[in-house]
Amino acid sequence: MTRRERSQAPAARCRWQWVFSSTTRKSGRSRLIVLLVVVAVTASVLFGWWRSPAPSDVSSVGGMFAARRGDLVVMVTESGSIKARQTIDIRSEVWGEATIIRLVPEGTYITQEDVDAGKVIVELDSSSLVDRLKEEEKGLASDEASLTEEQENYHIQQNQNESNITAAKLAVQFGLLDLQNFLGKSASQKLIETVAPDPNAEVEVATLVEFFAESNSLGGEALQTQKQYENDILLAEGQLEKATDVFEGTKKLHDANYASDLDLKSARLDVDRYRVQKESADEALRLYKLYILPKQTIQLLSAYREAGHELRRTEARARSMMAQALARRGNAEEEVIESRDDVERCRRQVAACIIRAPAPGLVVYSSSGDSYRREERGPIQEGGKVYQRQKIISLPNTAEMIVEVRVHEASVDKVRPGQSATIVAEPFPDKTFRGEVLSVAPLPDAQRGYLSPDIKVYTTKVSIKDSQDSLRPGMSAKVEILVERLDDVLMVPVQVVANRGGRKVCYVATDGGPEQRQVQTGAFNDSFVEIVSGLQVGENVLLNPPRVIEPTPGSESQETVTAVAGT
To answer: 246-269: per-residue pLDDT in tens?
Structure first.
């Protein structure tokens, strides 16, 4: 304040005191009247404002909120930890105990180029395994030499036997083909089954003649020859019939003086000539069936049966000669199989001492963060010992990270795979990541249920879509899952909805005081709830519904408190 202002301040105060005192003296009575009016109006408003549908039961009051339309976003918010979507565990596959002689530093990120190049991440001592492999290979070489000798002997005998049996089988086959070629397949089969079932029995000509007389299945060359004879007979019969008709016609013409005696004589000679031809064809067919056909059949059948005898003798000799060769070869093969298995196992063990990167990921030692394992088996380090099936390294693929959260059972029905999410990592509170729900466990977390039986949570995995270079497995993160987005809906704060006798109600401000109004609610979040019916836009509702004392059977009264919307 300047010097001039300080000097003018007392004068100003004097002027205001004078004005106030003057005004007070002039309007004291008016101010008293106004004050009385204000007090009366205020009392009337308060009395009407806080009056409830049941004035005797109202025990508390609150502020107001105007119902409005807007966008309602329903979210489920949970905390969890960041993990790699895919993690590969590297374990020792070496028998017994092995010493680590080379180990990639922890925290090294294995790239795809490293995987393609076959980068070694762990090397175990293989000196004792290499010595054992050499001894096994020597034993295998000796066993393979013995097997080669026995195999050659076996193959020589086998080839000789196969040649002998093949020749014998061909003789049988050719004998059968010759018989089938002569008689036909059906007649040959029937002949073998009925006429000569005994391979040592003799076949009589009379038996064959009777067989051919009764059989209608003759084929092959025999049938062709027989048909040729029959064709000659038919041809002769046709010519004879034709010559007879010509003779009869010529005779009628001769009787009518239209044909000469020479024409009639020529026609008679033709009839005689074709009759002789027919008789000759009939005789040729009879001789063929009686002598030629049985003779050729016996010759072919005998050759076929003799070939079968020789085949059986050849097969018996082959079985006898193969028995010992097969036994010797089998023993040698068993020895080689056992030796090869031993060598292959040793080779796999030697190869297992060199562990290459199977996939991209961040190198994490199995003893990191596990004090029990460090004390039990020692830390993972060069010179340390590892045992068969012991985990050495974990390779979480940090190129694709997820957040694993546990959703409370009250909200698990809202969460579905495919819903979008927003993720905030605790080390980077100013940076958000986009995500998507991958899966929701069908059953609650058993471990969490064991520790806290009253709390049921469901493991939910959420992917991280944005760049993840700054994220590391194990980081804490907060996930907001977008369950539903409703546009332009009527909504009010969740605390304005109360349960009254199993109904959801709001208290609406009216000129006559608060009015209990039954409403139907829809979706809700932590702050607002959707009003499906029961309210209009702009209606004022009490932010804190009154506490109502409702009498219940068996007791004088029961106090019903405000219920959160949606419960």
So the answer is: 888 888 888 888 878 888 888 888
